[in-house]
Amino acid sequence: MKQVSVSQLENAYIDACDTEIEAFKPGNVSVHSEGHGMTVDDFRRSARVSAPYLVDDKLSLGEKIYFAIEATQVEVGCNTNLGIVLLAAPLMEAVQGHSFCSNLQNAVAAVLGNTTRSDAEWVYRAIRLAKPGGLGEADKEDVQSTPNVSLTEAMGLASERDRIAYQYVNGYKDIFNYAIKRYHNSLNRWGGPSWAAVSVFIYLLKRIPDSHIVRKYGDQYSRMIVERMSVLEGEFSVANRPESLIKRLREVDAEFKSLGINPGTTADLTVACVLSVNLELLFYT
Q1: Number of C-beta neighbours around residue 148 at 10 A
Q2: In angstroms, how far is CA 210 from the centroid of its own chain?
Q3: Does pTM top 0.90 for this prediction?
């Protein structure tokens, strides 16, 4: 495993956030289309103020998450990056504290296998601070209470209804088994990281119901979303220039936003994919 500076690590995270915000993700905030009461500047500022805490190796996993969210709330006053931070923190912890692992996936597994109740307490505080939409209440280990289990165990209780929690108990399966391969294939084809991120977003949203949407609307729009992503995926598969599909992306984006559909969880997973690629390039090549 290579020796990498803290500034390189911080830049890897900020670059992943910037790549995602530059990607035209229908229904989500991007440089092509803002919405949902949030701006591109909100997301850029959130990335930069949260980064120092995520790369601070003196902080525990839970502390990284809490202080990154606290800094975001002070800076922008809204929930721009709870999902991003929840996914990014174990990745940062993995490369900083598990140099004995042969690859990033194994290092992440080592992190997730050793979370603590203290980590859960800090994360519960972060979630309460961010106040994500549609959180609701849980029968066991509700975030309004004090956790009695480790962070990974708490995520396990939420994994059936939240795809970010699912990553914690399945070793980031969606990222390592599917998204990264899709990203590299698209990047090799088009050469643009933001368009590769669009491809990942479409791929995931077609196949995995977005937790943020499901919490808000149930299955009301699930079929329609799959149909729209299937069409986009087909058009991207034959496009030599992804820019030629901007008009189509604008149409789907406008439709989603008119209905209040925001695939926020899929966008968070897209950031995690790009960050994983960046970290693999830094540490394992």
Answers
A1: 11
A2: 12
A3: yes
Alpha carbon distances (Å) from 5 to 56, 96, 110, 285: 11, 10, 22, 16
The full 3-state SS of the chain, as one line of letters, equals CCCCCHHHHHHHHHHHHHHHHHCCCCCCCECCECECCECHHHHHHHHHHHHHHHCCCCCCHHHHHHHHHHHHHHHHCCCCCHHHHHHHHHHHHHHHHCCCCCCHHHHHHHHHCCCCHHHHHHHHHHHHHHCCCCCCCCCCCCCCCCCCCCHHHHHHHHCCCCHHHHHHHCCCHHHHHHHHHHHHHHHHHHCCHHHHHHHHHHHHHHHCCCHHHHHHHCCCCHHHHHHHHHHHHHHHHCCCCHHHHHHHHHHHHHHHHHCCCCCHHHHHHHHHHHHHHHHHHHHCC
Q: What single-letter amino acid sits at 56?
A: D
Question: 238-260 pLDDT, tens per residue?
Answer: 999 999 999 999 999 999 999 99
Whole-number Cα distances in Å, 25 to 69, 129, 182: 23, 26, 16
Residue 141, pLDDT score: 47
User: What's the confidence (pLDDT) of residue 138?
Assistant: 46
Is residue 76 within 8 Å of residue 46, measured between CB atoms? yes
Count of C-beta atoms within a 10 Å radius of residue 67: 19
